[in-house]
Write a structure and sequence with these properties.
The protein is an alpha+beta fold and 338 residues long. It contains 9 helices and 13 strands. A 7-stranded antiparallel beta sheet has the order 7-13-12-11-10-9-8, with helices on one face. The longest helix is centred in the last third of the chain and has 41 residues. GO terms for molecular function: 2 iron, 2 sulfur cluster binding; choline monooxygenase activity; iron ion binding.
Length: 338
Amino acid sequence: MATNPPRTLPASWYTSRPLYQLECRAVFLKSWYLLGPIIKFLPGTFVDYEFAGIYLTVTATPCMDPNDQRHNSSITVLDSTTGTPLRHHTTSTGLLSTTISPLAPSFHTFFPGLEGTLSTVDFTVRPHRRSIAYEGHINWKTMIDGYQECLHCQYTHPAFSLLYPPTFYAVKNHHNWCQHYADAARPDDGLFLYFLPNCTLKVYGGGMSLFRVCPTEDPGRTRMEFDYYNVVEGEEFEEYYKFVRQVADEDFELCETVQGNLERGVYAEGVLNSVKENGVAYYQQRVLEMVLEQHQEDRQQARTREAEEAAASTSAVEHAPGRHGNSIPNRAIVEASA
């Protein structure tokens, strides 16, 4: 039996400010965010982040446990504005993630099964070498669209395609996270992950990189943040850095072109390849589901407020004092005079 191919989100979802505000409540406030390996957070330092207008600060203090042979630090994540502690989770292999609001479920509820996949890599053995950030003319989903498929890889990333031919590229979708396989015959060659809504992790070529796609108030402007880790340094690291930055710059240029076409109305909506673009279809569907759920919650809350306001107004009228200052309900006066 033939099935209809998945459809993309409409172009308006990449350009509308009200839709982005709805995404903030529906998706961003209810998600977890990958911050990086705990070795990035040196004792006595402060590392700042921002997601969907929520500012947070990560601090680390030396662990005083004499039995801690790995000398892990004690991590604290705070809302920078209110000073409120935020729930965070560190995997057994040293990868730190956080929430930005109490609306998010537990880590394992939001990312079921992820901990087992992350347990295959020790994230503390590659020192933090460099971080960069910059803004671009893209919506956050424009960049995730590109990351979640590799149909563009052969012509956009010729150097990367030599290492990982896109012919074999595949994406396996889990609940709120996806694992990419560059070669089905070599499933352990590299670790490529996507975490809903806007974080990625790549371990390959002797190094590790993370990027976060951070939306701004303008749906057509997004801040890109990259962290790079590697066991090598000096010229060897610079060669690695040059390679991964080439891939990132190629993606960025392509995404800015796509965003421009979306804003000019060149593209409105279309279909996705159910095999080669299943990663795009999955994450877009999750965003759609969460937004629709939030929309229903907003409507229900609005109806509840309207009902409460109407009840309060009726009560005020019924119990208003009469002309002579008595407190007989107005309805009783009307009924008595009938």
